[in-house]
Predict the 3D structure of the following.
Amino acid sequence: MGALGYSHFDHLPMKIARLYLRVSTNEQDLTRQAQIEQSTRSAGYYIAGVYREKASGARLDRPELQWMIADLQPGEVVIAEKIDRLSRLPLPEAEQLVNAIRAQGARLAIPGLVDLSDLATAADGVTKIVLESVQELLLKLALQMTRDDYETRRARQRSQFRPLRFLSSSQHDCLFDELARILNAQVPESLLCLRSVAS
């Protein structure tokens, strides 16, 4: 069993990885996720790049993510701490992201996500089809569960602001988004944002 929990890591023909590390806010740091660098090296990988980002996983237009995809070479592996570090996108966009990685000839290797790729590659006929179908289903489930968790968290946070009933629905959504963003901003900017919403 490899250090990242994948038994097949020890016999991959190409052991080149790119790491994607993400947190959502400036207050969070990437120290915990950085431990995955040591685990990846212990599994015998050469790390071709480490991409660190402070951005929402619900956005596809993350600069470091896009640079990583552009840098990918055939046979490389994308490693993240968890699936939600890579994506909290709606399922269609999450699948678009996965397809962009695969289009470069790379694949995902994320702890907690069952990887049947080596078994599928070694198989043929019906067995190969079944393994590939199961792999896709497991990936879709993981991506959808990650999105569902994101939506649940947002709904819980939004409910804390429901006393502001003098705002319209669109103003309420705008206020919530601004409050979430300005927690990391300077106070003058915060006041300007709030004033623009209230006007």
About this structure: Residues 125-159 form the longest helix (35 residues).
